Amino acid sequence: MKWEESKKEIDEMGKKSKHSYRYDLVKRGGNSAVMEDRKTIAARFYQLKSGHALIAKYLLRIGKRSDMKCWWCGHEYQTRDHLFKWCKRWKREQKRLWVDGQEGEDGYMGVEKVFKKPKISLPMSLVFAEEKCSQALMDFLSSTDVGRISRAAEEAENSDHEESSDWGV
Ligand SMILES: [Zn+2]
Predict the structure, then answer these.
(1) What does pLDDT average to over the chain?
(2) Which structural domain range is residue 8 located in?
(3) CA of 12 to the centre of ligand 1 (A)
């Protein structure tokens, strides 16, 4: 899918959703803030879909980190799979994504129900490609910091390598 089409799809998706971004509405107030935030989440969605995202596996590949350690839970390999399925930091959000889904008019089915398979047998590339899972993934991203650098990770890395303070990707 082309980037422009992807953006359009995400815009449509966001228009349909009143429920998922309520927290941001309460927190920041105003519709423009919600619009802004939806775009930020959409950007993270496409970074993670392509794999070129703020995850340790990618940062190691491009030389921004010296290992793949997960800055949320300390696991040895912070891959996309780890963050969406296994990372201990996001257990509650993972359960909603894979199993529970969300009730309500703009709710969604858990990903395992969409595919009728357990998460262990579902590659993330497949889940990202399935339109029926987009809302669940967007909601997961809006309720977690997956695809973001944590301050703790940044500080730890900077104290190891004083020269590498540039986190722009
Ligand atoms: Zn983790």
Answers:
(1) 82
(2) 3-52+79-151
(3) 31
